[in-house]
Amino acid sequence: MSDTSPIYFDSHMHTPLCKHADGHPVEYMEQGVARGLAGIIITCHSPMPNRFSHRVRMAPEQFDEYCAIVQVAADEAPDGFEVLLGMESDFFPGMEPWLEELHQKADFHYILGSVHWHIPEYMDAFWDGDVTAFRRQYFEHLAESAESGLFDCLAHPDLIKNASPHDWDFESNRTIIAEALDRIAETGVAMELNTSGLNKVYSEMNPGPEMLAMMAERNIPVVIGSDSHTPRRVTESFYLALDNLEDAGFENVSVFRERKRRDLAIEDVRDSLAASRVL
Fold first, then answer.
1. Which of 74, 86, 93, 138 has the CB geometry, 3.0–4.6 Å to 43, for a possible disulfide?
2. Which fold has domain 9-274?
3. 3 — pLDDT class (breaks 50, 70, 90)
């Protein structure tokens, strides 16, 4: 590739409004510039009604503030660097009408759908002490989230391996994962390769290599996201993520703008990051 200008985005990061992240969007923007990106997409945790999971997300009345602080970063970004508004929205059965309305409240560029198995409301509804059944339910909800039509991409899609990491075994779950991926592939929804999995108890990107290979077999598009909750983690382990994609059989990696997917050659993304000596 002769032109090594920035072409890729980090498409998953948060703000202090979620109550478990630090750094103003301006700081994430500055790190993105330094790390050789063309832009970033801020995707803080969606507000939910009736204090649902309220300890780890903005309140509904803070939504306008969220849009405003993302716009501050966009306004302060240097020419040619984009700061785009996104959202990480929780998929939870029965919440579809709330999310459908929420996603119309702003001009979002990218909506991530997440099944957060560890929030108290999810545990109360679906955990009965049977970890095998709990995992099966998770992948059922992952497929349902794609079929809902609410999301552009599914975040950290094997997060459930951290529910009981000491006895997670991919092969024991291959069949239920395959069934979920078959359904997801039919929808055209993308899936995320989330590099922050390396920092979790089960230290592996989400998804791991076996699931990633199954996604490649089904031609499911992939977007890389750092899931940064602090500015220094913007683009963290992106080189390794690109290697993982190639090892799994992918040639392209995707990015969204105006909720439309664009595919880029992995080698071109790697070259663009290398031009800024991203590690």
1. 86
2. TIM Barrel (3.20.20)
3. low
